Fold this protein.
Amino acid sequence: MSVDDPGRPNEPAVLDPAKIRWATEVSAQWWRNSHKMAPSPCVFTDATGRFSAPGLPNKVLYLGANPVACFWESGLGRDLNSRMPDDLNIAQSDLESRLEYGVQLNPTGLKIFNATDSAARRSIGARTSGCFSADHKVARNWSKALMDAGADGLLYESTRQSPGLCLALFETPATQNALGPIRKIGSAYEDAPLLASLLAENVAIIGS
């Protein structure tokens, strides 16, 4: 995990959509990590998270640019990230219960904000990358401001053990039409690079 100080975040004002610097390049291929019992792997949620919460204008679907970043942004990864260094273990059965999916997205016409782009941040008055990473309450306020301005989602960097680009996709008619085929890849336990990343972070995998 990066130890760089992203700076003190500031709160958003009302955003002018015409002044926002929207992302011009958004990948069409994303990943999703979901529990095998979930009714659908790609469900928009209003559960409290970095950019989602009950009462916000839109629900959110969290995607990752690679399976490892996806894992650390999912429930299992968030749980591990909150533990003490001497308590980093995970059951094999828990990894087997998490399924990885490849998700196709047609980004044409979507208004996606890139929070990793300093020029884009300046266009909305965000003085630091910490507006989207340091404090989840502040990040949710920026998410709401972007939703109110008509955004369809935002790109952000995972702040967890394994860095990687992530996408918080807002539930809008445009994003619902843009979501394409969803392909099941396999369980998290079958993902060799993911297992290697867990070992590199001194995470012990306990047999069932």
About this structure: The chain has one domain: 22-206. The longest strand covers residues 179-187. The radius of gyration is 17 Å. The chain has a mean pLDDT of 89.
